[in-house]
Design goal:
Order of helices and strands of chain A: EHHHHHHHHEEH
Oligomer: homohexamer
GO molecular function, one term (chains A, B, C, D, E, F): metal ion binding
Number of helices of chain A: 9
Strand content of chain A: under 5%
Cofactor (chains A, B, C, D, E, F): Ca(2+); Mn(2+)
CATH architecture of the largest domain in chain A: Up-down Bundle
CATH superfamily of the largest domain in chain A: Ferritin, core subunit, four-helix bundle
Strand order of the largest sheet of chain A: 2-3
InterPro entries (chains A, B, C, D, E, F): Ferritin-like, Ferritin-like_SF, Mn_catalase, Mn_catalase_C, Mn_catalase_dom
Largest interface: C-D, 118 and 118 residues
Organism (chains A, B, C, D, E, F): Xylanibacillus composti
Helix content of chain A: 40-55%
Radius of gyration of chain A: 27 Å
Structural class of chain A: mainly alpha
Number of strands of chain A: 3
Pfam families (chains A, B, C, D, E, F): Mn_catalase (PF05067)
CATH class of the largest domain in chain A: Mainly Alpha
CATH topology of the largest domain in chain A: Ferritin
């Protein structure tokens, strides 16, 4: 169960309105790697954790914090939308191309749909989708995804920091960047714990002898040129310590050409006789 | 530029048809963590890599291999759909509930839409979407996502292996599982290389003094109970070696209650006067 | 900012597992009218409310409660998935058609993707989408949508109650049904307050003389037959008290046939000359 | 069955082209609350009404009218796109920033995809989706959603009216605004009829004694601060006349902490032993 | 503007209910190639046709008919849902596996969401989307898509005909199949008209000398083996009569290896120095 | 199985960067009719072809080429994004409205998400979706869709050619236009082959006597006015040579008014008694 307090986790106030930037900031609120994503992802991972304990608790701690980030970003966006130019006055536009550009660069739904409020969408207007998230029941798999989300997320917030020259915006972003630093460290720490218990290949519980071990440490060079041979993945012991990396410069198929049986007539696929009746053979080939 | 050969990377033939399993196997072809996802993700990461070299080459090598896995799975699914019961014969169904169950468990689009062919969809029929993928220009961020994709992917293939009792299916899955073993090792190796050059916090190029460093290593316990204090993330040196983890058992807000300015009348939000005119105060509170 | 406690708002435990029902129950967790929808809708409405006061507070109170319902449903679904039949053992299926039917009626992603956990999807597997929600800045408009969401939501929970014969499930649903009773009453009360201040037509702030008032209270009978004349909407004073309903039995157009100008050649639409050159006139028509 | 006549329900001609406004106007054609939504929603509600009579007839009357609004908006958008600047001539842009701004503010698909025609998309380019609509079989629930759709719809059309300074556009919008006035009145009238027959809680047919009545009229204050106590929903008789509103200032959980059973090994979730083996306890906590 | 009459274009009544078939029939109502698609596609093509005349009229004629097919299918689906088993009575299921299979094969939303009504979704529950449609302003391009839609559509209806053994269903489908026969003929006739005026390559208005004519009639054999040389596309005069088909058995690239410039530091992509510093060269390669 | 070489099929280098054009060019990479669509569509059609032979080979040849076009477009877009203005420097914008317009016209995700790389999205940012594609098992149906895709595709590329004044961009587009010329010719050739073997109505294998032949060649004029009578589809022999087109100027329904049975009480639809109890009859109608 949750409780809410009205204070923000961190101040969230721009120096001045900027509706074009409001549109861009939506990316880290409602985009693929935004705050809604991590809030919902950690929430479902936590709620689905089978067995009690510190991982479940930690996931719900951080999920709960991420909802506070949703709140901060929504507040910031609403304030960036103050005084947005909503009238399309021909004169103004004709005489003031900067106003015209601002109106072109805004998300029109910030006026028409949300009435100058934040929306659960990304910077081009795609609504947030729950399949941005994963909760698989396997915590090592999920923590790796969490680390990915925090890495992409911090990268995007940093880019938004670079784009802005508003001190209020930058101050709030510097807080989110720091939290993403923590969260990358946090998932790295949790991953290290789990890897030390389970090993590094997910899932660790599948008997290794059941996989086709001949190709478990083989790098296939499917792109002409061998630059890829220069990486750590191409030689030396494998990262899981169970094998040696091999580099196959000219990979060959293990399987035959496939031939699919005809479909039954009731499916009305192209008939075998039509497929077979191939008479347009030019003289120089047949 | 690409070339195709008709042979499969690995044989892909079930012992017997099984249209219900065909539906399930779609997950690792067209689902969030399926082969289309990794093929397209590595392709775009490779094509967007600025600067030539081994990472670009390696990404395109592996992208190219993943399209061969798309081919193997599509072939397997088409074969699992051979002889699918497509007629809804009342008698058969009434007298043979297993046939009825099979028809209930199939994806009806495998008959109606694809004519017994594989589709670029997941196991419940959601079409594959390109926003399952990411190519950010920052390879460390992206390789972490690649590791996540291969971890979730191997987990799903292993679950499909457990569900099946068809030797042909299991043989092919054992190949995919082995390749996912390699690819987890591969991304771990590439990540290790990049982390050794750049450090572990993504992006490494953002000046650390610009982030709000007071909270860069702080764990906030937002969920009542302190089980989360028992993790590596709650004490000791941070994973990036730049700080010490701190555990805040009772986190407090840094920011004030927000107050948003009224919207201009032309937006037709609820008027401030309506919001302010709050007279329904019961006697015991006012 | 939010806090979490580990206790559930209400007990959430089925008498016995039932993976087919787990799939169905997803509808009110991750469907269009499920708990994620109301939680996120009230959250964004609250955060975007310009001006402080009771409406903002009330919205955030109820948003916060809805996240507790998300938690209850996720817990219930995870428990319904205990002991789900995940092996497709040919013998079992052949000899036990009920098991086969159960496997056909489950969501296969509950095994393959979530590892027996709840997912943010509906009962057919569509991921939750943020455009299920609305926060417009106009509270009367939004509260009407809230009332709609709670009406559809209670209807769906009631249908799920009827379908089930599990006492644990029914007990939890009886709690959600009661809360939806409250929430319908709550939005009706809030709507009554706002309507008494503003009037009933949204938005109330648009000057009525600017709308085409001749058709502001007219019912057009576009479907042959006049059964629709028997409704309250077809006669008597309008609900807003500003006009009289009129019934137009045979509506006629107010506008002319449209004629669109040709596109410029650089757009490569079909050329006007091709559109105009219409020579295939049969003798009996020309 | 339907018939079409070529005349428009109302004239639909702008004074001058304006491709940036064309993009914005798409919102009320193909957006969540646009004319396609109400047309399709009323159509499916009408077609699914079980039992003949005035409600079915009325729904199909109004559905049919909404398709005429689709036609008017499509025509208007096509005309606003006349003479759109489709050439990206560097000079023109460099010397005429207003042209540059116009090109930035347009929907590029209006040139590339539709060849200067209207599209079934919203103002940021999201394609219309059928899950914007609902037809539940319960008319009171559905009419409440219809009222919501007409409220949001009129709000958006009014905002678009405010933004424009084109007399032709405003004239057409004044017609749509008036029709939305009627349709809000219409659904209010129909709702009043049904509520007088059934009661106000949807669905009215579920036995009230089966719901957890202790919480059917309780407002839970989950957000610190008691501003929400000042509303009509917090005290006095409930709107359905069956109870008294109660305000719970400090809500407590009714349920215990949940504990989920471990998953079977074949699912390859994190093993219970790994979850339990929690040794990283710092000295000051254990 | 549209009018509606209550009679159906063709009778639409099954001999007996069949909720599993109702789910499947949804494909041709709300699927990619269903009746909503063609209704909306022809409607937008008609409304966007610049210039009056027979094509615009014909498009709107047929659009209007397709809405009658939407009506017929919605009616049929509602009737197939009569008496659907909505109670999950454990006994019934345990003792009657056919009932269990029926419940597994139904779309659960037909009970929970639509209350036994048709929905604008396909046979696996994906909501209809407007980007299934195209209206490009170029009628030859669009009529080819219309022909494609009617071809896939008739194929799907035929497959549904084969699956059914209900005389009422089959009778209605035989009507839809015949209309699709007409519509394939209709678009073929319209295409023939336009091709005779414009030529067959769309768009016909682009100066042929501006395209890279060396490859305008070349078939590239990118897949090892030359079976593809046996087709009409590989030799002889081209279909547009402007060139000769050529078959290139071993296609070579025309372009160089691409090299992308580094990104500016403010974007925080992987730094050039990190990409360049490639030291892991194994002895046997460097 | 696939192989990759690093050379591009055709040079892909703009004369100068242009981030606004980069956004537009995305349409033919990741839009409905872009290169990803044809690559994936031909790939799945090829892999699902039951029976070996030239059609399967030809499909895979051309699928493989289309991935080279994906590569060319991604490369071009990355280069167009070089030196994009990513800093929102107030001064620059205030003094240089063209820079402001450029920033308004860009896709902000090209900076924030992809770090100046191409994305698998269209020109307004919708992610590519696999349901843009079809592979039905019936090659004539599918080749018609392929022809449609190449027609819309060439139309869009031509429009993008018209918009640009960059010689490098236009050179690459002239190559793609030529390839689309070939591919339209190719599918026309393949269609001609199949039609000569099967006939023109898809599917050709359904017994014509089972369709309702009275309406197999009838054009229904559902839109007032008879301009549509002037087309080839309205008179003369049908295109398939099996009948004569007929023009029905005033189409009448073949079916009765539908009446749907009431739903069972457990579904909680509006009760029949409520639907029937229709007392609001005004005096002048009853």
């Amino acid at each position: 169960m949750f409780y809410h307090i009205k204070e923000l986790q961190y101040p969230s106030k721009p120096d001045r309105p900027d509706p074009v930037y409001a549109r861009k900031l939506q990316e880290v609120l409602g985009g693929h790697f935004g705050e809604i994503t991590v809030a919902m992802q950690y929430l479902f991972q936590g709620l689905n954790t089978r067995g009690d304990g510190k991982y479940r608790d930690m996931l719900l701690d951080t999920a709960t914090e991420e909802f506070a980030h949703v709140e901060m970003l929504a507040t910031m966006i609403a304030r960036l939308l103050d005084h947005a130019p909503v009238k399309e006055q021909e004169q103004a536009v004709a005489h003031n191309p900067v106003v015209a550009a601002v109106m072109g660069g805004m998300n029109p739904q910030h006026v028409i749909v949300s009435g100058l409020g934040a929306m659960p969408v990304d910077s081009v207007g795609n609504p947030w989708r729950a399949d941005y998230t994963i909760a698989s029941g396997n915590l090592l798999a999920d923590f790796r995804d969490n680390l990915s989300k925090e890495s992409q997320g911090r990268l995007q917030v940093v880019r938004l920091y670079e784009i802005s020259d508003d001190r209020g915006v930058k101050d709030m972003l510097s807080f989110l960047i720091a939290r993403d630093t923590m969260h990358q460290n946090q998932w790295l720490a949790a991953i290290a714990e789990l890897e030390s218990k389970e090993g590094i290949v997910v899932p660790s519980t599948f008997p290794r002898e059941l996989e086709k071990q001949q190709v478990s440490y083989t790098f296939f060079n499917f792109s002409r040129g061998e630059e890829s041979a220069r990486g750590r993945w191409a030689h030396g012991p494998s990262m899981d310590g169970c094998g040696m990396f091999q580099y196959v410069a000219q990979p060959q198929p293990f399987g035959p050409k496939p031939f699919l049986n005809p479909a039954p007539p009731s499916v009305h696929d192209t008939l075998p006789i039509v497929l077979r009746n191939e008479t347009n053979l030019p003289p120089h080939i047949g």
